[in-house]
């Protein structure tokens, strides 16, 4: 089979593969990404074991919380992307969680001071005022967030040179948390290597992590995909870097 047929097969396979939920098992053997050193899932499990009522914002497919060994009395999750809502409901049924479908950027549909713990992994955006509103006095917000310029190398491979990132800097999150009346008690940063071994992995990743290249479609970016495929086959796996930060804040 010639190289052109190979690339078309890889692209077609990745374009047809499901991207529901927030798991990345499809990339096994095709791409790898290092994980932050703080172990978010373990931190969440520890906080959940001591919580009475907890909220997970932007739960995705519910993968992180499905494995919590000691869920709180009340565990609620929100999700705004419709394909993920039913996935999360199936996944979180085992821990007795309720999944609420929401509209992105809308106020949280919960009463004031409803939760003593709010968590969020890779939220699309954090509404700090709403987070503070639904937290009980003494409650905790714990979040692993996407940092500024994450996967920039991959974005630029599709879009060309980009200006310096203006959003998602940890200092902005700290300022917003404080403006909402929260006390920031922990802030950690990490940069991890992400390695793509074939163009199919790139296509699937861009379909799933939609903010990397907004509006991505195979047809729109086919020339760039073919160029990146040639780069991978001649120079080796494509390397990008993911930036993450952990922020923990409490309501006085």
TrEMBL record:
UniProt keyword annotations, A-Z: Methyltransferase, Transferase
UniProt feature coiled coil, ranges: none
Domain Methyltransferase type, first and last residues per copy: 55-142
A Pfam family reported for this protein in Swiss-Prot or TrEMBL: Methyltransf_11
High-level lineage: Bacteria, Bacillati, Actinomycetota, Actinomycetes, Micromonosporales
One MF term in the entry's GO annotations: S-adenosylmethionine-dependent methyltransferase activity
GO biological process, one term: methylation
Transmembrane segments: none
Gene3D superfamilies in the record: Vaccinia Virus protein VP39
Protein name, UniProt field: Methyltransferase domain-containing protein
CDD domains for the chain: AdoMet_MTases
Organism field: Micromonospora cremea
């Amino acid at each position: 089979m010639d190289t052109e047929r190979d690339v078309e097969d890889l692209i077609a396979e990745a374009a047809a593969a499901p991207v529901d939920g927030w798991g990345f098992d499809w990339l096994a053997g095709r791409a790898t990404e290092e994980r932050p050193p703080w172990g978010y899932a373990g931190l969440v499990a520890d906080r959940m074991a001591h919580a009475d009522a907890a909220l997970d914002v932007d739960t995705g497919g519910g993968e992180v919380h499905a494995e919590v060994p000691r869920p709180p009395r009340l565990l609620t999750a929100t999700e705004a992307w419709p394909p993920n809502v039913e996935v999360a409901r199936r996944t979180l049924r085992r821990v007795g969680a309720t999944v609420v479908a929401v509209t992105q950027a809308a106020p949280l549909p919960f009463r004031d001071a409803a939760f003593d713990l709010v968590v969020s992994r890779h939220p699309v955006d954090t509404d700090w005022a709403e987070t503070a509103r639904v937290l009980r006095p003494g409650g905790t917000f714990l979040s692993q967030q996407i940092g500024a310029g994450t996967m920039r190398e991959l974005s630029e491979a599709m879009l060309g040179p980009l200006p310096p990132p203006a959003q998602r800097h940890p200092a902005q999150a700290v300022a917003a948390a404080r403006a909402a009346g929260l006390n920031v008690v922990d802030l950690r940063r990490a940069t991890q290597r992400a390695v793509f071994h074939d163009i199919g992995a790139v296509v699937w990743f861009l379909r799933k992590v939609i903010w990397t290249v907004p509006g991505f479609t195979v047809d729109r970016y086919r020339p760039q995909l073919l160029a990146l495929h040639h780069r991978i086959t001649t120079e080796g796996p494509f390397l990008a870097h993911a930036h993450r930060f952990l922020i923990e804040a409490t309501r006085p």
